């Protein structure tokens, strides 16, 4: 990886620079809106829309007068206009392609294509970063060595093998994986491209924020979803946080726009909310061992990423949701939006729909803002939520939502994860 | 319903007229392309990409020379560029909104809004047409009476109740349902809006073809998927056929363009391929009793629709696929495209991927065309496939793809359908 000391600073303009580099290689994924999701999110009980007898939309359609009437009561509802950034349609099915292409183009810039091709790149990952790096490297005919735990599921190994023949197996602990990576570096001179804890990765992922802002302006121009108040800007953007590359990059992009608050969303299962817990203890939590269905978010926040996440001027706060809330959200996304989003990618919307603290916070800010502007403030918060990836399978869905006895018992015992992996220890990326 | 004798003729220009009327009320759904699906469809064995160890894409990437080398051998592969019309993103989750809005706006035009409001509209359907008519009617504050078999699933009843309070239950046979409809007509003076067998419905559904053609031109302009040969036109368009409204409308739209062939796609399970069988016998088959997972395609082709389907100058042919082929296709759409498309909506792509007759026919036509043009013809067929709807549930997916013993046994015995309905008799729409 490029030496961090040679990297561009973590600023919005560096993200613009990263975007110029990676734009030819990535998809500009759509920013999707949905009136029914707006209504559901702005209703008193979003889970009611998952019942066999959901309420009619009329009753859920946000009515500005409701809030005005509710006045200062704590019963005021949060009002949302949602914008979904569909990175499930990104190359390899997740935002990770952005960071990987940025890391690889920066390496080429710094060392020259010949040296990078001679040495190759290496990483350890059983997830989306593995495929992303293999794709980015193969695009420039650079060898990619991917170290994967031998217990990885067949489909993930096969997915990575689509782009590189060099999949190398290791044990599943951090030490075992890192030993294999060290061997590859020693033997081949390969350059390590970590999944999240590096400026080039963070800047690459930050291009999600850049694109979202651009697309909000375009939408506003077409009147597709009418903007109120002072025009096209997000009141809030919320992304998943695992290692912290996506949240770090997005928060960096919006850091010069104090009116856009950036939030992170985590699963709470088995302590996977290490970010939120770290903020409470005022120090980064270094180890996570969770089998949350949001398998992309099982990692602890990275060292460099933590400096951004813990900076209140960049990240306004972190919120966590339960496994059941993630499942309910995934079902709404599937059945209402007709989109396949993996559990990790559903976590931000789960926070909007189900996290009571988040919803109270939004309602309260909206109340204060209305008072300040004598009721003339905009009635909704325009909230961007990042659907970070779509890499799940029919088999995983059947296990998560099926009534088969075996699957149900295993789920309850916490011994099976959404992708069928039986045992995972703080897997990266 | 408007008296057929007062309806516009079944021509492309009537479809343009229909589009002007319904455009304010429907979504212009996206036309989606996918390099990986192109490669899979153009490979020798598309099902290999569903194995735990799929081949790398390189081996599937269509290579023009392959075909030239294969020369006149019968081994030549068909080569596809696919365009998916995403009616799963349409209002109420299916193309049926188009026909329903056209039927209702035509009624208003003919009888005046006051009379239509006084009398209301009525239909019998347990499927997407029920919701579509209820939505279209409620948009103009017209009462909608929807007759549904009392065995309909809770979610479908609830879906229809979102838009109308007037859901009326009946027995599940045609006779029982029609008796209830007759009662409503007698009592309320309500106007019947049938699900497919009427010119206004056919013209409304035909706007799918109009939009696809427009979007292909736009795509071609941006160079998003490069057009070869004589520019932006479909070599073929393929839609599902149940009652025949969508296929009839689409074939009508392209009827003045002999270079674009229109095909229909059906499930073969338990005789649901009544269209194909009817063509062989040279007469419309009047009854179908199938529990195919493609539950929108369990109906026999309508009388008026049959006149279009049986007209070789409009519909080039019908092809059928098995339940397993539909399931494999739905998995590819879900896992590769990240889209939720209901089984009925996957049937056209299933024909492209798995129907041997269809694939041989395309390869043979491509060979002949190359010979005629001395090898200078375009290398691919540009094929539009309509993803007609996305109304399925997580529960249905878990039943279809799960390993739960009960579900599997019931599936094998053919006693359970994808939506959990236990018994269905030629349900319309």
TrEMBL record, chains A, B:
Known cofactor(s): pyridoxal 5'-phosphate
GO molecular function: ATP binding; D-serine ammonia-lyase activity; L-serine ammonia-lyase activity; magnesium ion binding; pyridoxal phosphate binding; serine racemase activity; threonine racemase activity
UniProt keyword Lyase, yes or no: yes
Highest taxon in the source lineage: Eukaryota
Region (Disordered): 45-71
InterPro entries in the cross-refs: TrpB-like_PALP, TrpB-like_PALP_sf
Tryptophan synthase beta chain-like PALP domain segment(s): 80-352
Keywords (A to Z) from UniProt: Lyase, Pyridoxal phosphate
Family: Belongs to the serine/threonine dehydratase family.
The protein, known as: Threonine dehydratase
Species in which this protein is naturally found: Cladophialophora psammophila CBS 110553
